[in-house]
Write a structure and sequence with these properties.
Number of helices: 4
Helix content: under 10%
Radius of gyration: 25 Å
Oligomer: single chain
Strand content: over 45%
Number of strands: 37
Length: 514
């Protein structure tokens, strides 16, 4: 087996003239040909990864070579070499390190500044698909022995395994939801299995179906999401036998076929939007924004942008080489397409009428949600608790938003069997009787008194704060018997939009009890 090695070389002569065209008349998204490069080994491009700031792209090929390239300066920065074909790449936090997974199970953590491997380890099974959570810390790898192997990259050690029986044989997609609380696997037959990456247990199993043609079967050819989206998008083909059947020796193309791009809600699996399209989608990437998806058809060199909001194709760009994979940067500035024979083309993306990529009409990257206090619940699983939730304090937001957050948190916790919530009417009655101005104004001593009057085991005091585009959601649990705060939980939502608040509250609830 070849060992991982790194070197710095100059690929400036490999930057070739861009022979691609872009046409997007009267569309929200504008594209401009930006750069094209030919990798030295001329092997098929197998993996892409943009840095979070969009300034750099890592390109992996079928021979195990990884080229890290400056998009802004149009020049190579460093080349790395993995033992086998690269199947997955991702930049880690601060964009100084890259994680690479190859086809034989070597996982390499690479330091770009030192052009060296910080550590290398092997998966137990042979990798099929790999993905990483939005926090760039938990790596999940589906293997041929019907397992999902999880690795904590910060600790550089295994975190656990999940049973993926009957999933990996036809696995098409593996990805985390935005908060990192669900891992989804999608098979070519439309089966969707979701796990909790904290407990490694299955959450649910569903089957994606179309059902527009009588007696049809379905095949999923592609799927995508991104770290900011609430939706999971698939390219689905529906196939049915025409009325009257097919005569012996007839052409298989006589089957009735319909193709769709379908968006599903991450939390419930409910279909949100379906767009009928003329061709099968063999590859896709979510973006630009949260309501577009770039699609690659089964034939031809065109990449189409499907507008999920409008329900229509929003324009196309054409590459000189047959596209193999496609990626869009997290900041929505770049579209990259990898082809066979090592060709990579890059387009710049902008929104019509605005020089930036962030507009109110088409949301950009938002809702990077994470817990600052870990994911272990403050209340031990299965422990019976009578809980009183006091009013949330509003810091930089309206009290209406704080009340909405309290209501959403109460609903989430009320669905946990071991938690008994004290009704808001009872809390209001105690407030009135004790002549407290508002429950969030109560100090710890008063909160203990309220908890005793309500016959509660714990009192939860929370707040919602906002600074710029970042929102902070906090909760403190007080033990009524001891009068002490037993634990605090905090969830941060960067570039937070209104629709992100509910996901942040859902994560806060999971850090309190599960």
């Amino acid at each position: 087996m070849r060992t991982l090695r790194c070197s710095r070389i100059n690929f400036m002569p490999l930057i070739c003239l861009l022979l691609i065209t872009g046409r997007m008349a009267a569309q929200d998204v504008l594209t401009s040909p930006y750069a094209s490069l030919q990798t030295p080994g001329r092997e098929d491009i197998t993996a892409f990864a943009f840095s979070s700031d969009g300034n750099t792209i890592a390109i992996g090929d079928d021979d195990g070579k990884i080229l890290v390239w400056s998009v802004v300066n149009k020049r190579p920065l460093v080349t790395l070499e993995s033992p086998e074909a690269v199947i997955f790449l991702s930049f880690l936090s601060e964009n100084k390190d890259v994680v690479a997974v190859d086809a034989k199970g070597t996982v390499s953590l690479l330091n770009l500044l030192k052009s060296d491997a910080m550590s290398t380890f092997r998966t137990r099974g042979t990798p099929i698909r790999a993905t990483i959570d939005a926090g760039k810390q938990l790596l999940a790898i589906a293997t041929d022995d019907e397992q999902i192997e999880f690795y904590d990259l910060k600790a550089a050690m295994p975190a656990g395994t999940a049973d993926a029986a009957d999933v990996t044989d036809h696995l098409l997609f593996l990805g985390f939801d935005r908060p990192g609380q669900q891992l989804a696997a999608i098979t070519e037959r439309g089966a969707v299995v979701m796990w909790n990456p904290n407990t490694f247990r299955k959450i649910r199993e569903v089957t994606l179906q179309s059902g527009e043609l009588a007696g049809s079967g379905n095949a999923v050819h592609s799927a995508a999401t991104n770290r900011s989206a609430n939706v999971l998008v698939v390219g689905l083909e529906e196939v049915a036998i025409p009325k009257g059947g097919i005569r012996s020796g007839a052409n298989p193309n006589d089957l009735l076929r319909q193709n769709f791009v379908i968006a599903y809600d991450w939390s419930s699996g409910t279909e949100i939007k379906r767009i009928k399209i003329p061709t099968t989608v063999e590859a896709m990437a979510m973006g630009p924004g949260n309501d577009h998806v770039a699609t690659v058809p089964d034939e031809g060199n065109e990449i189409s942008f499907v507008d999920l909001r409008k329900g229509e194709i929003g324009g196309t760009v054409t590459a000189t080489e047959r596209p193999r994979i496609v990626a869009i940067s997290e900041d929505n500035r770049w579209l990259a397409v990898g082809s066979e024979d090592g060709h990579v083309a890059v387009w710049s993306l902008k929104y019509r009428g605005d020089a930036s990529v962030t507009t109110t009409s088409l949301p950009s990257l938002g809702g990077r949600i994470r817990s600052n206090t870990g994911t272990e619940p403050a209340i031990k699983r299965g422990t019976p608790v009578r809980l009183a939730i006091l009013d949330f304090e509003a810091k930089g937001v309206s009290q209406e938003i704080a009340d909405m957050c309290l209501s959403s948190l109460s609903t989430s916790l009320a669905n946990i069997e071991s938690i008994t919530l004290i009704e808001r009417a009872q809390i209001a009655a105690v407030l009135k009787e004790q002549q407290f101005q508002s429950s969030f104004m109560a100090d710890e001593a008063t909160s203990v008194k309220m908890g005793k009057l309500l016959n509660a085991d714990h009192v939860l005091m929370g707040s919602v704060g906002k600074l710029g585009t970042t929102m902070l959601f906090t909760a403190r649990l007080m033990n009524v018997e001891t009068g002490k705060v037993t634990s605090g939980r905090e969830v941060i939502c960067e570039e937070c939009r209104d629709q992100d608040i509910f996901d942040a509250i859902k994560m806060l609830a999971s850090t309190i009890a599960q």
